[in-house]
Each structure stands twice: as C-alpha cells, then as structure tokens.
Amino acid sequence: AQSVTQLGSHVSVSEGALVLLRCNYSSSVPPYLFWYVQYPNQGLQLLLKYTSAATLVKGINGFEAEFKKSETSFHLTKPSAHMSDAAEYFCAVSDGAGNQFYFGTGTSLTVIP
Amino acid sequence: GAVVSQHPSRVICKSGTSVKIECRSLDFQATTMFWYRQFPKQSLMLMATSNEGSKATYEQGVEKDKFLINHASLTLSTLTVTSAHPEDSSFYICSAQTDGNYGYTFGSGTRLTVV
C-alpha cells in the first residue's frame, strides 16, 4: 500500500525566501511521486513528477524536488518565493500499476510581502 | 498539451435531486478516468476509477448506487450524484492519464452545493 505524509498543513514564507514543503512517502514497491498545486476553486496542476529516473526533478515555476530513498522523502523546494506561489500543494504517490494516486493532506503556502 | 474539461464548474441543487458532472478529454482518448472528492481544507480522496465500456471500480466506503459513473466513450466520463443531500456538497475533480510516463491531467473541478 502507498501513502504520503505532508508535514505542516500551513507554511508561511517571506517573498524571496526559500520555500520548503515536506513530503514523506510509504510504499511497498518503487514509488512514483508527484507534486501538484491547486489554486482556489481550481483543479490540480502538475508541478513535477519522479518516475525512477533522475532523483532531482525540476518542475515548472522554478520548483524542484529530490527523491531520497534512504529518507523516504520527496520534499519540494523553490529558492525564492513569489507572491503567485501562494496556493495549496499536494504530494501524491502511485505504485505505477493501478494508476491510482494517493494524496497527502496538502500544505497551504502563504507568501508574505 | 492534454486538456481535461470538466463541466459544470459550479452547481447548486435542491436536496433529493440528481446532478450530473461531465469529464471530457479534449484532445486524447482516455480509457481510464478517475473521480476524486475534496472536502474543504482537506485532501483529495479517490472515489472511483472509471473504465471505458465497463463498470467503474469504487473505493471502499463509496456508495456506487449514489455516485453513478458512466464511461461510454473514450473521451467522456460522467458522475451522477443521485438523490443529493447537503452532506454531498463538495468539490469533485476528475483526472485522466495523458501519457505513458505517468502523466495525469486533472479537470478544473466542480463545486457542488446541495441546499
């Protein structure tokens, strides 16, 4: 079975500061990991995904995430926060076989001017 | 890129009535689509997997007779909330696999309010 845990339901950073959103996963098989962003009353937009290729994955809008098997983590980072980054972020895991996603509980990112 | 269109974006209905939500893949064929439900300030919970030409697979605890899913074509899956109640008020989102490299595209969601 697969699951993800997102530490911190709310994260606040100053504009221009580092963004770090944490995600730890549990999987009995090699996982496929994803980060999605959701703006209010909208669907989900894929930021990036890890599918067993390079462990450092670069996504859209300057975000990146590193797959660390030893730590079962897939934390999302961005060097410099922008006001437009304020949104809800979801980490998700899939076993790649059933094509199902298991989402974390989400982290709400607030960017302070 | 691949687009999943979901309609309507918002719907308000009276208790006891039924509401149909459509999820369309606009420029690709989707043999499998997924339906999620999201309560306020919570994560997305998979409700069911919609398979073209066959019965949907429901997650544990999801009432299949209440949430009817039809996937009659490779580009359209529908979710019908039957005999809606206020507790069915939620944000419903569909998704489809858009490429073999685990690319999934989500619809823009439907905000259902049952009054």
Summarize the structure.
By secondary structure, chain A is an all-beta fold. Chain A has strands at residues 3-5, 10-14, 19-21, 24-26, 32-38, 44-50, 56-58, 64-68, 73-78, 87-94, 102-103, 107-112.
Number of strands of chain B: 11
Structural class by secondary-structure content of chain B: mainly beta
Please state the average pLDDT score of chain B: 90
Largest interface, per-chain counts?
A: A-B, 22 and 25 residues
Give the helix tally of chain B: 0
Description:
The complex is a heterodimer of chains A (113) and B (115). In chain A, a hairpin with a 4-residue loop joins β8 (64-68) and β9. Chain A is built from no helices and twelve strands. In chain A, the strands form three sheets. In chain A, strands 2, 5, 6, 10, 11 and 12 form a six-stranded mixed β-sheet that branches. Chain A is mainly beta and 113 residues long. Chain B has 115 residues and is mainly beta. Helix content of chain B is 0%, strand content 56%. Chain B contains no helices and eleven strands. Chain B has strands at 4-7, 10-13, 19-25, 32-38, 44-51, 57-58, 67-73, 76-81, 90-99, 103-106, 110-114. In chain B, the strands form two sheets. In chain B, strands 2, 4, 5, 6, 9, 10 and 11 form a seven-stranded mixed β-sheet that branches. In chain B, strands 1-3-8-7 form a four-stranded antiparallel β-sheet, with no helix packed on it. In chain B, β5 and β6 (57-58) form a beta hairpin. Chain B is globular, with a radius of gyration of 13 Å.
